[in-house]
Amino acid sequence: MKLVVQVKLLPTPEQASALEATLRACNTAASEVAALARKIGCYRNYQMRRHTYDEIKADYGLGAQAAQHVIKKVCDAYKTLKTNLRNGRYGKPGSKRRRTVETNPIAFRWDAAQPYDARMLSWQHDARTVSIWTTAGRIKNVAFTGSPDQLKAVATLPVGESDVVHRDGMWLLYACVEVAEPELIDPAGFLGVDMGIANIAYDSDGNRHAGTKLNGYRRRQQRLRQRLQAKGTQSAKRLLARRRKKEARHAANINHVIAKTIVTEAARTGRGIAVEKLTGIRDRVRLRKPQRVTLSSWSFHQLGDYLKYKARRAGVPVVEVDPRYTSQTCNRCGHRDKRSRIDQETFTCRSCGVVAHADHNAALNIAQRGAEDWAAVNPPHVA
Prior knowledge:
Layout: E1 2-10, H1 13-40, H2 45-60, H3 64-86, H4 96-103, E2 114-116, E3 121-124, E4 129-132, E5 139-145, H5 148-156, E6 159-167, E7 170-178, E8 190-195, E9 201-203, E10 208-209, H6 212-231, H7 234-269, E11 272-276, H8 281-284, H9 289-297, H10 300-314, E12 318-321, E13 346-348, E14 355-357, H11 358-377
Parallel strand pairs: 8-11, 11-12
Antiparallel strand pairs: 1-5, 1-7, 2-6, 3-4, 4-5, 6-7, 8-9, 9-10, 13-14
Helix pairs in contact: 1-2, 1-3, 2-3, 6-7, 7-10
C-alpha cells in the first residue's frame, strides 16, 4: 500500500528563489491548460498533450517531464471536479454555485503542489539532501528534515512520485512511499463503530471516543469564529485563517488517535471493523441548526479514511454497511420503531423493553451488519 510522508525542505535564499519561480511557472501553465481544456471540452491527458505540450514548454521554460506533469495535473483536477459534481458537492443541478463551477475553468494558485518523479528529483539520504529540477536548472544539496519516523520512511522504503508545496512560508515535500501490506485476517466477529455528533465515535464494546470535552472545544471555536467574522477587520480575517488551520490540525490529531485506538483493539481481539457508509450524509439527515454546523465542521470522512488505512496496515478487514435504521432498531430483538429513540442518549425498545445507550445500540447493529455482509462476500470454505 502507498503512504504519503511529509518532509520539510530547508533551501538557501537562492534555492528558494529558484523553487518559487518554478512553482509559479508550472501553476501559471496549469491555469492556461485548464482554460483551454474548458474552452475546447477536452479533459483527457494524451489528447491535451497534443494541444498544449509544445506551447507550455516553450512559453514557460518547462522540461519535458514537468510539462507532462502539468497537463496530467489539470486532467486529474477536472476528473476530481466531475466526481464532486456527480456527488452533489456543489449543490443541486441548476443552482448558482454549480453553474459557476461547471462553466468557469479551474485556476491554480502559484504555490499549489507540483508533482516530481524520479527523473526530476533524487535523494541523498546520507547527506540528507535532495537534487531537484527547476526552471533555472537542476539545483543540488537542498537540505531536508523531518521527524525520525518520516526520515526513516523515505530512507528505507521505495519512494515514488513526490509533490513540492509552498505553504505558510515553508517548503514541503510530500513523498509517496510503498509499504508492505499484510494479508487480511479471517475475522472472528466485527467491532461496530457508530459515528455521530454528540460522540465522534462509539464502538460496539461500549467505548465512547471524544465526547463532551471535544464538543466543548468545538463550541468555543465556533463562538470565536462568529465574533471574528462579525468584526470583519483585516486582522480578524488573518486570525480566522490561522484559527482554521489550527482547528484542522486538532481535528486530524483527534481522528488519528480515535482510529488508532479502534484498529488496535480490533487487531488485538482478531476482529474486523464495521463502519457506516457516510456518502451523502449531509443530504440524508435532517438536523437542527446547531447540529448542522457541527456536522459540517468536523471531518467524519477523514476519520473513515484513517480507519481504513490503519486497518490495512494492521491486516484488519473493514466493511462499510448501510446505516439506515441502525439507531431505530433494537439489537436484541430486531424490532424497529423510531419512537424507541427517546432522546440523543437513550434507546428503549418498544417491543422487548431493553434500555441501552442509543449510540451503543447503533454500534451493535453496525457490527451485526458487518458480520452479515462479510459472510455474504466471503462464504466459509467447505472441505
